[in-house]
Structure formats: structure tokens, C-alpha cells
Amino acid sequence: MTTYDCDVLVVGGGIVGLSTAYALTRAAPGTRVVVLEKENGPARHQTGRNSGVIHSGIYYRPGSLKARFAVRGAAEMVKFCAEYGLPHEVTGKLIVATGRAELPRLHALVQRGRENGIPVRELGPAQIAEYEPEVRGVGAIHVGTTGVCDFGAVAAQLARLAADAGASVRYGAQVRAIGRRGAAVAVRTARGEVLRGRALVNCAGLHSDRVARLAGDNPGMRIIPFRGEYFELAADRAELVRGLVYPVPDPAFPFLGVHLTRGIDGGVHVGPNAVPALAREGYGWGVVRPGELARTVAFPGTWRIARRHWRYGAGEVRRSLSKGAFTEAVRRLLPEVRAEDLIPAPSGVRAQAVLRDGTLVDDFLFAESPRMVHVLNAPSPAATASLPIGREVARRVLAGLS
Question: What is the pTM (predicted TM-score) of this model?
């Protein structure tokens, strides 16, 4: 007879993994859950290294998981933060067209927002100044349901709630091996500990495809890491921005472009750009892991992305290597900003799923196999959508256990 250490093993202690653990304890009280996180605390990567924006859901294709979960998740995230006294603010945001050529895309966003049930207000140049006096544009839309919070604090609260309900959250527990034996899933950690569960959930973010392969599953995609580099406005220039200001995004890419974000601490983050990272946790050009880089370069999808989007990529790299070029991009929205106003801030890395044909996966992506659920693509707006994502993953894993 198989002896189980728990019912569900969750690999990954970012906001999605911890939301899943929380959802499991809520949906099926008494379910024994163990979360294994390789770092010494929660939210050390994508969750804790973003701009802290609670996204409205306006950008995402109607009917997609991103659209449904972001709209629902934004409202739930505000309620969750209020309930547990976590810092947050519903600020609203502007999406600004800086040239007439961007107006058709701006109008398409208005339509998309309405299809997703999001209230939007169209603005002319004079009305832009009512919200953001220093921002310039030929047109804009105001999205009132956007806000900011501290997603690291949210993740820590989810960990506490899951633990209070009986889950075990273990830090410094990197998973090195996964095996199926009979009705059990077993994992071995870097410390040599072996744990057996009835099911496993893979919420490993930047390493989700590798964890799927460790489990013997073919994820059908590869995580390609893109580093997002940020600056912040000098304290004496932070008054240039009142809230959140975004450019009109290019629909061919999953990135939103360089934007301006006044966070819960009152500071204004500027960025990010998006450049290929030379390691999955490559938070600077100097962080290179040859093995990871070699596997990224050997993946056919990498070269197909490069061929298809080399002009866009070259512009991003130029802005990464030249502060002047980055400043120029910011000045399209905020003409008063100067290079000396921009102070380097910590960067983040986006875990972007890419198919072999070079397609950038543009929705959340889940995969299932016997006794396993893999979360294979959960970049932004996953933090915003983390509560409904956790419930969805919990529903899938519990269905497999029934």
C-alpha cells in the first residue's frame, strides 16, 4: 500500500503557486498540500519583480482566459487587499496615442474593452491634461478599474492563509527529480528529501517547461526569458506623473511598451523594455548561464522569433544599451523628462512560452497528464488574475483526484 506525504504537491512559491495552494484548502478542506519553493521566501521572481499594476483586462482577446481571469481577478485582487489590509489603490490609467497612426489601434482597444465589460472613456488632447498635465498625446482612453498593489505582499498573505488552513509551504526546496509510481507522484529535492503525493501541480514559472519534462511530459513549448529593464523617476521629478500612463501597444507582441507607473510607495517606475535574457533568471546583461543559453539558442522557435521580429528586437536592445534611446522613448509620452531624471531600478524577467514555429503563446496555457497539472504560460496579467487562476488549477487537480 502506497504511503502519501500529502495529497497535492505544488512546485513553485510565486503568486500562482500560492494562490493554488490557498484555493485547494478552500475548495476541499482537509486536502493535504505541500508547496515546494527553491528560493528562501515567496515571490522572488516574476511576482516580486513587476510594476505592481492590477490590470483591467482591456488588452486581451474577448473570451480568452486572460480576458476572463484578468477582469474577474482585478476586482477580486482589490477586495483581497482591502480585506487583509494590504497596500493598494485603484488609480485608473491612461492609454495614450502619441501619433495619428496609433488612433485606429486605440479605437480597437476601446471596442475590446467594451466587449470585455470594462468601462472606458475616450479622451481628446485637452482631456488628457485633466488627468496628466505633463503627458502629451493626440488621443487617449481612461480605464478606471486599473490600480496598483504589492504583489509580493499578496503572495505572502496567500502563503499565510494556506498555512493556517493546514498547507505546508517549504522554502529552499528545489525540485530535482519527479517520478510516477503506481498512483503516486514522488519528488526529490536538492536536499535529498523525497515526498510522495497523489497529484502534482507545476507552477514553476520561469522553469515550468523544465519541470514538465522532469515529470516525463512533453510541454510542446519552451520558456524563452525576456528581461524587462526599469528606471524610476528621481524623487524631485516624480510629480511629473500622477498615476499610470501607457502607450498604445503593438498587437503583434505580448509586451505593453515603456510605461509610467506611480506605485503604492509614491515612486514612479518607468519601463520596461523587453530584451532577451541570457539566463532564465538573467536580471542583467552580466548574468549568463551557458547551458540555459545554449538550449535557448538551439530551440527552433528562438530563431523564428528572431527572423520575424528582428527590427522590434533591435530597437529594444538599443534602448537597453543606450539611456539616451530609452529616454527618447519615454519623451514621446512625457516630453519634460530628461536622462538625468531616470535612475536605474531592479529589472524583471518574463517567462514567455514560445512554440517551435516561433509563435508567442498569447494566453494562459495549462496542460494535464495523469495526476499532474502544468501551468505553462502565466506571464502578465497572471499576478492580477492569480486568484481565479488558482481556483482553476485547483478545480483541475481535484477533478483528477476524484
Answer: 0.95
